[in-house]
Amino acid sequence: MERPRWLDEREQSAWRGYRRMRRLLDLELARELMRDAGLSEPDYDVLSDLAETPDRRLRLSELADRMLWSRSRLSHHLTRMQQRGLVTREECAADGRGAVVALTAEGRRAVEAAAPGHVAAVRRHLIDLLTPAEIAALDALTHRVVDHLTGPDDARR
């Protein structure tokens, strides 16, 4: 068995700082989104993903993949969103097997009303605290890690 490569002091500080920052940032953004717009983070993720597509629709499977959720978990969440009039589900016209999630007019109004406050919170709690060089570094490192975790290299699993 290979010996672990323990983190040194600097690496450990960076790792723990990242974990604490992520939890605190996620918590604060979720609180403000709920307080100001009445939406949970998953609500906002669904609505914004749908709003960013040309026809305001996505296959349920594609939306689940984007959210890193199981189809079952997403389906239950969508049921609650449907009850609030934010989304609808339709049969997939292309193959009749899958479901398509569509943004309703109410859902579009909700995400458009929430977006300005949400982006202001993202700015206040992260972006405006960073220098342009730090934003460039954050952009580079997040893309590197995402590419590593979503790339074709299965050896990391």
UniProtKB/TrEMBL annotation:
Domain of life: Bacteria
Sequence intervals crossing the membrane: none
Domain HTH marR-type, residue spans: 11-147
Name of a matching Pfam family: MarR_2
SUPFAM superfamilies, alphabetized: Winged helix' DNA-binding domain (SSF46785)
Cross-referenced PROSITE patterns: HTH_MARR_2 (PS50995)
Annotated Gene3D superfamilies: Winged helix-like DNA-binding domain superfamily/Winged helix DNA-binding domain (1.10.10.10)
Protein name (Swiss-Prot/TrEMBL): MarR family winged helix-turn-helix transcriptional regulator
Species of the source: Micromonospora rubida
